[in-house]
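Complex record, two chains
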Amino acid sequence: GENVEQHPSTLSVQEGDSAVIKCTYSDSASNYFPWYKQELGKGPQLIIDIRSNVGEKKDQRIAVTLNKTAKHFSLHITETQPEDSAVYFCAAPQAGYSTLTFGKGTMLLVSP
Amino acid sequence: NAGVTQTPKFRVLKTGQSMTLLCAQDMNHEYMYWYRQDPGMGLRLIHYSVGEGTTAKGEVPDGYNVSRLKKQNFLLGLESAAPSQTSVYFCASSLGLAGNNEQFFGPGTRLTVL
């Protein structure tokens, strides 16, 4: 089955800095890569996703890049704000696309 | 719309006790999922359902059972709770296959087994 590795496990940045979280996957047939944000005490929420027909997708201060050859994708957050502090999960589909495999998560802390 | 709701929010059990966690969604989604979240382990899939009356095993199904008698509800049962089942449980639903569609998560149930 699909294996997803996520790094780093924790990331501390100063407000205004950029943050980058990286994930690798194992199944070259995977073509959908979502990112979820989990705020303290809440369930995860989709913030951005990318499909394999594009290499980059942006939504205001967040962007995701995909390198299918290397089988990795990354989340980029620019001009970080304290409200970006949360746990971020990447994911990739299992064969058959019924389920997702999640990375172990990255705890992002943005200090004012 | 309430989205995905979970009942209860918190529960403490003794080893060997049983309980049922209820997940309800009002978005008419076909697909529903139960995950557990443990520190440093991310989200791991317990069981899922691709439609009313169907269930399937996920990555960590042992010790759990599920039922999807109504489209809007997905129940997770623990027949004989063990301390290893201490975790935060999340339910999620999606309109289409999770491997291609957004999943909507509930607020979670924090379960402690003593």
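Note: Chain B has a mean pLDDT of 96.
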